[in-house]
Each structure stands twice: as structure tokens, then as C-alpha cells.
Design a protein that fits this description.
This protein is mainly alpha-helical and 462 residues long. Helices cover 61% and strands 5% of the residues. The chain contains 19 helices and six strands. The relative contact order is 0.10.
């Protein structure tokens, strides 16, 4: 057991208590953040005359060497230490002696861990954003290639009106675009430096918190030392944004699972992204989409877990807050994996335009347009609605699409029908005429795609 405290204790910590209390098994992820934060801290301490130039140089060199040794595998982070902070300090003192004992001057593990978590979340916000950008790039490519790929649009999972694949994928483009905006928004709230808040009440050393903040690339220091160590809002916000991303991915996955089924055959998931069954030789299962859908649960779990941990915590730091890490790490890893795999899956997936178009035709998705045709010829809309309703019944009886009826059959229902009806209710016309902003008509889609291309060409940080 190597720990940073013990002076006031007369007994050794019970082994189980030690293990229960320790966080090294998971906060070892903070090696880089803890070293970066510590270097900024001692650079500031030296500038303020709290430690000497020699001491600062020794600490920086020592920390850099520890980083190299851990990276190369020469030094292992073991459970002998309570947490990553103790590991680094103990190793530093071993290497450089007394100067190492000054690293923690004017600092508490409370502001130290708050800093590590902020640095970690800040970096991961960018990483998740990068994954989303790749996904959006892939969606846009598929959109551009499928402006004339007709398919049924659904409401209540019932075929409703004809759209295109580009239009359907465009809906997901907008969702993931909003997700990126949320990440950006959170980034600006995370980006304040809690270091220098001490345990909760600041410190009597003349720390320059603005300087430390700028060394670490923050917009500034946090402005209340109690809040600095007790705030985990940004973790909850990030988990909430991650949950929303999973909700979107899960809806998309669900559709792909349906589209990949034998009944639909709108898409075929590539062999590399499917798995077989141990008993049924014919099976090719959409496991990746199912797993993405399934993993949504654990990300929501992390969000609810963290909200519950923080509920009713008195100010300032409480050990409960150590629970902010495992669920958050898991959620971040899960979401990044899901986005990357999902992107690969849609990038390699084959579309079956013939099946989509057949499904749109057989599903009476042009019924509204057929009614509009009659309206244009002078039939009041409510009457037209009734006529087309009866027409659909006839089609169901005859197992035909509307456009497969002869003109004579159509005229039986309304003498208003003329030969031009076939052109007017074709999928091409039905979609082509929908030209309001955001609609599936070609010109409307092309305009949106141009806007989204411009959006993708700029990085959020700029
Ligand atoms: N392992 C702790 C955490 O993750 C670090 C802060 C400990 N502070 C303390 N006063 N025990 O929250």
C-alpha cells in the first residue's frame, strides 16, 4: 500500500477497505492528464516564486521520464498505489528526492482529479466529434449517389408517401449534425480550469490561476473554488449527448435490421459486418446493428447512474464522486466503437433500389398524389380522397398497384381519369414535384446537400 496520507492514523487500513477505496484500476487512464496538469502546476509555482527553477526543472524531467517509462512498459502502474496521483508522486519522489515532495504544494487531489476529468472529457469530446464527422461524410456520399433511388417513406411503419434513399438518410444527417452541435456547446462549458481551487477553499499560496489555465489551453479558471471541486455537470452533459447519439444510432440500426430482413430486402449487409448461426446454415445476421441498438442501454445506464450519484450530494467534494469515472469511460469507449463500426457497416452495405421502388409502388405511396391529380381536374379534395380510397380497395382485390390498372378500370371509379394519370402518379413525378425546402425532390435535395457539404468542410474548432 502506497498512499499520500497516514500521519494522523494509528492503524493500518483494512485490506478490503483499501481495495474498496482505491481507484487506480481505472484512474490509471489519467496518466497523461495528471502529468500534463502537474507540469503546468509546477511551472506556475516557479513563476510565482513558490518553488525554485531547479526544483521545477527536476519535477518536469522526473514526470517526463515516468511518462516514457510507462509508455515503453518499463514501469507498470500497479494496485500497490491508491490512485494515479499517488503513483506519480511516489515514483517522482523515488526518482528526484525532496524536490518531488513539493509538487503537491497548493494543490489537493480534489482539484487535481477535477482537472484530470475535465482534460479527459475535453479530449474525448473532440474524439467523438471526429467519429461523427466520418459518419456524416459517409451518409452524405450515400445521399449523393441515391438522389433517384425511390423508396416508400413510412409513418406508423406503414408505407406513406414516396421518398428517396437520399432523403431518408438525410434525416439521420440532421440528427448527427445536432449531436455535433451539442458536443461543441458542452466543450465551451468544460473548458475552464479548476486547478488552484485546492480542497475547496483555494489556498494561501500566491497561485496564478489564469496562468495555469492558459498553459493548459483553457478559456480561463473556474470562478468558485467550491464549485470547481464539486461540479460534474459537464460529465452528465457529455453522457446525455452520448445517450442521444446512441438513441439516433439505435433508430438507424433498427431500420437497417428491418431493411435487411427477408421481407424487405432493401439492403444487404456485407459479409464482413454479418455473422452466421451455429445451427441454421442459411442465416446471415445483422449482429453489428443489433449490438449497437443493444449497447444503447449501457450508455443510458451511465447517464442515469451519474445523475443518481450526484443527486443530493452536499458541497463540496465527496468520495461518491469517484464513481464518475468507470461508467463514463465505458460510455465513451462504447459510443466511439459503435459510431466507427456503424460507419463501416453502412459504407459496405449494398442497396437494392429495385426492391425499394417495388415496395413503394405496391404500397400505394402515390395515393395522395392520385387524389391531388383528381383535385387538379376539379374534383373537391374530400371527394377525391373517397374515390382513391375505393380505388385502393379495388387494387387490393386485384393485387395490383394503382398504375397497373387500365384506364377503363380507373374510369369505372371516376370518369375524370385520363391517360396522363400514369405519368402524374409515377414515383419519379411524385418525388420530383416535392420541392419545398427539406423535401425529397431533386432540386430541393441538391440544395440541402450543398449546404451540408459546406458544413462538413469546416471544423468546429475554427
Ligand atoms: N480518487 C479520487 C476521485 O476519483 C480522487 C480524489 C480524492 N480526494 C480525496 N479527498 N480523497 O474522486
Amino acid at each position: 500500500m502506497a498512499q499520500l496520507w497516514g500521519g494522523r492514523f494509528t492503524k493500518q487500513t483494512d485490506d478490503m477497505v483499501y481495495a474498496f477505496n482505491a481507484s487506480i484500476s481505472f484512474d490509471k487512464r489519467f496518466l497523461e492528464q495528471d502529468i500534463t496538469g502537474s507540469i503546468a502546476h509546477v511551472v506556475m509555482l516557479e513563476k510565482q516564486g513558490v518553488i525554485t527553477l531547479q526544483e521545477k526543472d527536476d519535477i518536469v524531467k522526473g514526470l517526463t521520464a515516468i511518462r516514457e517509462d510507462v509508455q515503453s512498459g518499463r514501469l507498470e502502474i500497479t494496485s500497490e498505489y491508491e490512485d494515479i496521483h499517488s503513483f506519480l508522486e511516489a515514483n517522482l519522489i523515488q526518482r528526484i528526492g525532496d524536490a518531488g515532495k513539493k509538487m503537491h504544494t497548493g494543490r489537493s487531489r480534489n482539484d487535481q482529479v477535477a482537472l484530470d476529468m475535465r482534460l479527459y472529457v475535453r479530449e474525448e469530446l473532440l474524439a467523438v466529434d471526429g467519429c461523427l464527422k466520418q459518419l456524416l461524410t459517409e451518409i452524405l456520399r450515400i445521399q449523393k449517389e441515391n438522389l433517384d433511388t425511390y423508396m416508400p417513406g413510412f409513418t406508423h411503419l406503414q408505407k406513406a408517401q414516396p421518398i428517396t434513399l437520399a432523403h431518408h438518410f438525410g434525416a439521420y444527417f440532421e440528427m448527427f449534425k445536432r449531436d455535433r452541435l451539442r458536443l461543441k456547446d458542452i466543450y465551451h462549458r468544460v473548458n475552464y480550469c479548476p486547478l488552484g481551487a485546492g480542497a475547496l477553499a483555494g489556498t494561501t499560496y500566491p497561485l496564478d490561476r489564469y496562468y495555469t489555465a492558459s498553459l493548459l489551453g483553457f478559456e480561463g479558471p473556474t470562478l468558485n473554488s467550491i464549485d470547481s471541486v464539486s461540479d460534474r455537470d459537464y460529465v452528465i452533459e457529455f453522457l446525455s449527448a452520448l445517450s442521444m447519439i446512441m438513441m439516433h444510432l439505435s433508430r438507424f440500426s433498427e431500420e437497417i435490421i428491418i431493411w435487411n430482413s427477408n421481407e424487405y430486402r432493401f439492403v444487404e449487409i456485407d459479409d464482413a459486418y454479418s455473422t452466421g448461426s451455429s445451427i441454421m446454415p442459411q442465416k446471415k445476421n445483422p449482429d453489428i446493428a443489433e449490438l449497437v441498438r443493444g449497447k444503447t442501454g449501457r450508455v443510458y445506464g451511465a447517464l442515469i447512474g451519474m445523475l443518481t450519484t450526484m443527486k443530493a450530494l452536499p458541497l463540496a467534494y465527496n468520495k461518491d464522486m469517484q464513481e464518475d469515472k468507470e461508467g463514463t469511460f465505458d460510455a465513451i469507449d462504447t459510443v466511439k466503437d459503435c459510431i466507427v463500426l456503424f460507419t463501416g457497416m453502412i459504407a459496405t452495405m449494398k442497396f437494392r433500389p429495385e426492391n425499394m421502388a417495388r415496395s413503394a409502388m405496391r404500397g400505394f405511396t402515390n395515393a395522395t398524389d392520385a387524389a391531388d391529380y383528381l383535385v387538379k381536374k376539379g374534383v373537391p379534395f374530400r371527394d377525391a380522397h373517397g374515390i382513391i380510397g375505393r380505388l385502393v380497395l379495388t387494387c387490393i382485390e386485384k393485387e395490383k398497384a394503382i398504375e397497373e390498372l387500365t384506364l377503363a378500370e380507373l374510369k369505372e371509379l371516376s370518369p375524370v381519369f385520363e391517360a396522363d394519370v400514369y405519368d402524374e402518379i409515377s414515383l419519379k413525378t411524385c418525388v420530383g414535384k416535392r420541392l419545398t425546402v427539406g423535401a425529397p425532390g431533386r432540386a430541393a435535395m441538391e440544395d440541402v446537400i450543398k449546404q451540408n457539404e459546406a458544413y462538413l468542410s469546416v471544423d468546429w474548432q475554427q
